[in-house]
Amino acid sequence: MSPANEEGFMQIARKALPLVFRVSPGLFVFEYAVTVLDALLLVLTTVALRGFFEHVTGLAVGSVSFGSTLMSLLLFALLKVLDEAIDGVANFIGEYYAGKSNQAMMNELNLKADRLDVVKFEDPEILNQLDQAYRGALNVRGLVHVLMDIACLYVPYFVFMGLFLGRAEPLLTLTLLLVFVPVLASHSLRSRYYTRLDDRAVVLRRKEEHYKDCLTARAFFKETRALGAGAFFLSRYIRAFKGVQELRYRTELGSQRVAIAANALTLAGYTSILGVLVSLLMRGRITIGSFSAILAATLEMFAMMTEVLDNRLGELSASLGQIRKYFGFLDLPEQEYGEVHIDEQKDIVLEEVSFTYPGAERSALSGISLRIAAGETLAIVGENGSGKTTLARLILGLYRPDKGRILLGDAPLGELASGSTYRNASCVFQDFQRYQLSLRDNIAISDFAKLSASSDAEIQDALAAAGFRANAQQMAQGLDTLISKEFGGTDLSRGEWQRLSIARAYYRSHRLIVLDEPTAAIDPFEEDRIYRDFMELKKNHTAVVITHRLGAVRLADRVLVLKEGRIVAIGTYDRLLDESRYYRRLWTAQSKYLQ
Amino acid sequence: MIHLGNAVFIKIAFGCSALLTVGVVALRLIAALLPALETLAVAGLLDALPGVVSSGRIAGALTPLLAVFAVLLCSYVVQTLNRFLMLRLSMRLEDRLKPEFVAKVNRLAYEHIEDDGTYDLLERVGADLPGTVIGGFANLLGLAEMSLRVLGPVVIIGRSSVPAALACLLLIIPIAVLAQRSGAEAYQAGAQVAPHARKARYLKSLMSRREAAYERKLFGFGAVINEYWNNEMRQKIALDYIADKKIFIRAKSISGLFALLLSVIALVLMLVVRQGLMTAGVHISLIIAFSQLIHTLSWKLSDLLKEHTKKRLWLEDLNRFERLEELPGSDSVPDKRILDMPFESLIFDHVSFAYPGSDIEVLHDFCLAVYPGKQYAFVGQNGCGKSTVIKLLTGLYNNYSGRILLNGRDIRSLGAAEIKAYFAVVYQDYGKYQLSVREELRLGNADLADPEIAALLEQTGLAQKVGSLPLGADAPLGKLEPGSADLSEGQWQRLALARAFGRQAKLFVLDEPAAALDAMAESRIYSIVRDIGARRCTTTLYVTHRLAAARSADEIIVMKDGRIIEQGTHAALLAQDSCYAEMFNTQRKWYLRKQVAQA
User: Fold this and answer.
1) Residues of A in contact with B430 (CB under 8 A)
2) Structural domains of chain B, with CATH
3) Has residue A245 got a pLDDT over 90?
């Protein structure tokens, strides 16, 4: 988000308030009603304390009795205990409410991420924003809470203090302003320092993260060790985080300078209150007891100001950037999609379809025209980066074409609902997920609606069809067995996970199924089995198979050859071998060693 | 209320900067004493006031007024200095702890990296190590300051009446016991919440991670998984609720008790004042002090206690992390002197191995001899143990039985630095280091000269691509900086090969180098390896599923269930009715023309 259209503090607060309020309106009202009560008690204790001090000073000169002094003490103590109890209730509810609203804020974010076009997840900026938004989600309630406390606790309290002081001397009310205007002003200044820091440190932070990964993340660990490159990355890592540190240090220094200036003003305010009080006393306008009480109240006010308002606003300034990211993410545009049902009679037609990834210079696919007949098996082959997976994602309705259109039967999808998510489509993904859930959920996750409508039998069928055969000992609790070492369950071998992913795809009701070749290494037997099983499973459904293994495509009705995002050939396996020079080259590159 | 184990935070801070740590502690000590000084200054002022009122001259109150001002000024100065010193200290902690953590992880025995539980531990400990330490340190300081602040007024009372002060102390004891208990309870509750929090974190990742996005969208599981997440969160919140209730009741009982205590003290002091042992000014200012103290106590105590517990739980993680075993020499730079030693033989002598924590042997009695100048291919099904051979050879695991002999010497007796120089390894999941091309090739090989870099790029077919970049070999790769260039899978893989070939190692080890590559790219890799291998007479060990790579090897080693079941040349193995022949034919039949396949 550019600074130009960055939302102000109050705009964010206006969005945050209803969100937090809706979490539990009753409790919200109760919490702040208690807070108002807290403010009231705070005020009453100040009054009672004043009464007590009048008595104590009176007692010293013998103008009041011990008994009435005791009464005034008891009144003060009672109010103080009551205030503590009320304060405790308010805090406790607050803590509970914080937990609940953090959940609610994250829930919004989860659902937003779920609704978002899946192609957005290819954009590192969006991922980065989501990451910060999650951190911001934990601070939304904090923002509202501080504002509500200001409205329900501090403002009533300070207004009363203004009156309390003003009754003794109107001038004192004015000096009160000196106490908190500087604090508020300094915070708005300081939050600007932090936002600037976040923007400037972003590249350095990314570097720091990457060099740390080079030393510690699984993806790099073995190789970094084998290369003996540890020391190199360590020095890079240090340089990067020192850079971030330097920026942060300068920011803090700047921010501290503002704070010091604000403190000086506050101190001046305090001194003038003291001066006014002494002069009032000397002119006989107040008693020593009142002097003590006003002094006590002022000291308490200062403690409240520095410890509570200062710290809490300080935290808020530091997290405002993240909260902004939170609302920014929730406001990302999303598309409304209708549901499209693929049925056996309808062909899938692509007309002049082009697609470019966000932020990419070159288009991943261009000018793709293609008709996949209902029930047909189409194989897509091509080199790395030729656009195979992208094409499959378009066919599955996961991406929307930039240009051209996709039709189902003769109905143009673009007019129905552009790039709808299909109901009856399934897929074995290239990097299939290993869900740390129960065996049942690992399968049913592809079609939870089906799970509630049918028994476990279909899950068992899917597992059997995919050849999943983990031993009974390992799967002691049957479908309820948790497949996750981390959460105290069992783990599977790579091969069994692969079978699970096929069972998962098969479980989902489908008329169209896609098999995207697994990226990781699998042995020839396994590979052979996967393709054969898949062909067996797909039966009379429309199927798309993506593969590097050009031998495997002979099982398909037709083969589509992609090169740099364009179709270079399409036809049956044998015809392509005879007619497409490019295909023959690809084929020979693999088969020459196997002849 | 203080768990002694948390004192480790002070030790760590002290270890990073003794001066700053002492400075911060001293400042906090002063900060803790200031309220007592304020009480005395205010008492002085109040006691001077009757004189001022009766005489009508302010002179008598000037000194106490100045004292009050000075105390306040002091508290601001101390606060500001404290923030500054804490900032400096946190920088020192970063300087020390960040590299130490990363370096320690980098030196860990490899089994820890492969273990999910440990990997998760590394995340928890490493997420913000310096920040957590400084937080733990500040938490202790906060608790200490709180205790001192309670004691301050008691000392002031003691100046007037020792029995009254002792009575106060007696009243404080139950409060301390209560606080101690609530700390222990918070700890128990925290330990209960942790598993739900972890589970929730995992489920959240299914909703938000890129890797899970495609399945989530197509399968439409978002709503259900989100409900699972909400469920875990609800359980977590319910447990938090119970724990918080206890903590708040305790903390508020403490401040409530303190309020009662205050009235008793005020009453006692009234008697003391009546006896003329204490001035009214001291009395009033003490009550002001106690009244403030109650407010601070009620605000801060429960926060401090909760934080204390969190830090204590975290320290357990830190402890576990510190106990993780390291592999000596694993962070060394390759020692090239060993390259003067010509390669004669590499012998696996009855090697058996099971992964730590597992009973299943992945290698049984594995015996093999490797001789110079030849190419060896390890083939076999998933889980047959071929990749494990590489892990043992490169020293990632050492706890095997039997021996691996390099020129007759047990490789475990060689230094890690020597092994790194002698073997060059390219992995299937090669790291995409986001550096410039030149830096990539110089990793672990800092003195690689520019002409050699140019030659390597030429040999691996990258010269044209690199030449097309505006900054050539100095162009940053990846996505870290604006203007970085990205490579295709195949190009990254060739860069990893070029890096390995630049190292003049005696043995090349390639672990599934073409797994993620298409046919053309794969074929290119093999011919590059063959060309360079032939030119330099190096010995190559391949681990592969692609029989295309195996075919061109001089010796094929077929493994099954941790043993060698067949060994020989491609032709010899095909001639037998071997397992290799079956694998080869499985792959080959896909490539036969239709007529043959149908036959």
Assistant:
1) 223
2) 4-323 (1.20.1560.10), 336-598 (3.40.50.300)
3) yes
